[in-house]
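Batch manifest line 408
LIGAND: tryptophan
JOB: complex structure
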Amino acid sequence: MAAAPATEPPADVGDADDMVVTAWEVSGKIDYNKLIEQFGSQAITPALIEKFERVTGCKAHPWIRRGIFFSHRDLDMILDNYAAGKPMYLYTGRGPSSEALHLGHLIPFLFTKYLQDVFKCVLVIQMTDDEKFLWKDLQLDECHRLGFENAKDIIACGFDISKTLIFSDLDYVGHMYPVIVKIWKAVTYNQVKGIFGFEDKGVPGEPGYEPVNIGKHAFPAVQAAPSFPAAFPHIFGAGNNTVPCLIPCAIDQDPYFRMTRDVAPRLGFLKPALIHSKFFPALQGAQSKMSASDESSAIFCTDTPAEIKKKVNKYAFSGGQQTEEEHRKLGGNCDTDISYQWLTFFEHDDAKLARIKEEYSSGRMLSGEIKGELIKCITPLVQRHQSARAKVTDEIVKTFMTPRKLAL
Ligand code: TRP
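JOB STATUS: finished
ARTIFACT:
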């Protein structure tokens, strides 16, 4: 009989501290510089930001300037390609495992919308209904339905219908199957285990035993495939291997694309470029997990103004002092204060953000007041999202989700 398998984290997280970042788990205090080192990506430097602005003629997004999108692979090559007037495309995705998205879920999509405006290019969005079926205790039909529902929230971010394909893996997989089987053949079982660390959990026959199914081992090729234009014959032409891909994603998705970049040259494909974001912290603080199944951990796109106000006031972790007197004397800590942290995501006015930081850390602004600033900032944003989503009909979703020719 096989030895009792350990529940060790995958090989790539290593190290003695408690930071864990894999495609399925993020915990501990995240040291982003260390992640760049461990993953072998590049930091986004002021020089690269300057090049981005020069080549695109667009101001860098606040999330780039503020270091929220902090790491990349081959972004400079994408800029050279763009400067040469050649086509490119964007690829991102979502695992549809919940009905309502929270603000953290919107970040990659809002950023991708900005990138689509900047590069005026095709975008493909993968709904990994297959992934969620393999990983979660959900029915297959339910995963598919959630993908369709979530597509409405994604569309509400403002994507260009003439340049955007949203696809469900379950529906679309046939078109990219030739690419998938090529990836399967070029990646060994040991490589997948090395990158993703799939290990059975627990001991056979004992409660909590969770063996890893073979679908999980096969799935990384499905997430890799859209990185190659050959996966979209109706958009780029059959067998296209010349249009480069840029993938905006949270840094935890990087293992998939390390595998993808590794395999690309062996298949005669271009390596996809990446731009990675940090994680959006939960209301209770950067160390706790924001979860779609925990109402109090997040602001959902469906929350009412009253709910937003209540949740921020009640749950947003405060970097303020215990008493008003102490706070006035010592000031608040912006590094741990979630209202401030969230404002760095959603208050796009640099001068206003700087003023709030100064007021709060000097103690002139109280914890309740910075929470008020956050509420004022995100309430209209959520309301705008809700009215945009209400206008997304099933017809519109169907159009976005139909494989078709797109304007390159
Ligand atoms: N695996 C991702 C998730 O669970 C979804 C996804 C698929 C994705 N393809 C992607 C995310 C490309 C970013 C980029 O959410």
